[in-house]
Design brief:
Number of strands: 7
Helix content: 25-40%
Distance between the termini: 37 Å
Order of helices and strands: HHHEHEHEEHEHHEHHE
CATH architecture: 3-Layer(aba) Sandwich
Shape: globular
Length: 279
């Protein structure tokens, strides 16, 4: 049973950065009932925030490795306010994006931000409005942990993928890191590596081409202190703009992690868990 988060905040809580928060947009469908202000805050910070720059970079690299840079159809399932499409659309003009988002406000914001050339459908990721074998890739970025039935979303992603298609998943890691922030963002769970791998296998994805790694590793100690030991912020979640110094520190940490992932391999722990699987 979870202990209720303490309210308020002391000096240390204000000094420590809000390093990472779940339920993010640009790839994160929040559970119905999340306040409209949360979507607006997300849309305001995601273009420049270090976390999104790193996350979208991870997604772009995996899609490029699997699809190349030629024509490909990609579904951002749970696209939030459209941040992923907004960033990668211009960067990879041959890719054709489609978005799905359940919340009407998020859909409206996404349509406004990505332009008329990209279709944004108001629908659930557990009942995608597409025929079988429609897409070359599906992205579920910070989506499935909001769902009561995360397996339904994974099975739907498998259904709409073409044979050989790629699934990219990002999700919050380590159940022990559960905190006020997960409650505030209507999360249902955080994942262990084995748990997420097992669910991908159960949804029909092959083990041979499956890759999982943690990331946001260097900042995990600070996140753990902020989330587990310090009072919860007044707003409930860690959604906030960053100071230039903290933004620089976040980008520097992500750059170091990128070197590790490129030349050494997967990271054994971190705030987030990133997976790639093939149909």
């Amino acid at each position: 049973m979870q202990r209720p988060a303490k309210k308020g905040g002391g000096r240390l809580a204000k000094l420590l950065p809000r390093w990472e928060w779940a339920g993010k947009t640009g790839g994160g469908a929040l559970h119905r009932g999340v306040e409209a202000d949360e979507y607006r805050k997300m849309a305001a910070v995601e273009d420049g925030m270090w976390f999104y720059r790193a996350l979208h970079g991870h997604i772009r690299r995996e899609l490029t490795a699997g699809l190349g840079r030629g024509p490909a159809s990609i579904l951002d399932a749970g696209c939030g306010t459209g941040g992923l499409i907004r960033r990668l659309g211009p960067a990879e003009p041959a890719w054709r994006w489609t978005g799905v988002e359940l919340e009407p406000l998020a859909c409206a914001l996404a349509r406004e931000r990505v332009g008329a050339d990209t279709q944004i459908h108001e629908a659930s990721v557990t009942a995608l409005p597409f025929a079988d074998a429609t897409f070359d890739a599906v992205v579920l970025s910070d989506v499935i942990y909001h769902l009561d039935d995360d397996m339904a979303a994974l099975r739907e992603a498998h259904r709409v993928l073409r044979p050989g298609g790629i699934l990219v998943v990002n999700a919050p890691a380590h159940p022990w890191l559960w905190s006020y922030h997960d409650v505030a963002t209507h999360a249902r769970r955080r994942y262990g590596r084995g748990e997420l791998k097992g669910k991908l296998l159960a949804a029909g994805f092959g083990a041979g081409a499956m890759r999982l790694t943690h990331w946001n590793t260097l900042l995990l100690p600070l996140v753990a202190v902020r989330r587990k030991l310090l009072p919860a912020p007044a707003g409930g979640s860690d959604v906030a703009a960053y100071s230039p110094l903290l933004e620089w520190l976040g980008r520097a940490a992500m750059a170091l992690e990128r070197v590790w992932l490129n030349y050494v391999g997967r990271l054994p722990f971190g705030v987030s868990l990133f997976a790639t699987a093939k149909k």
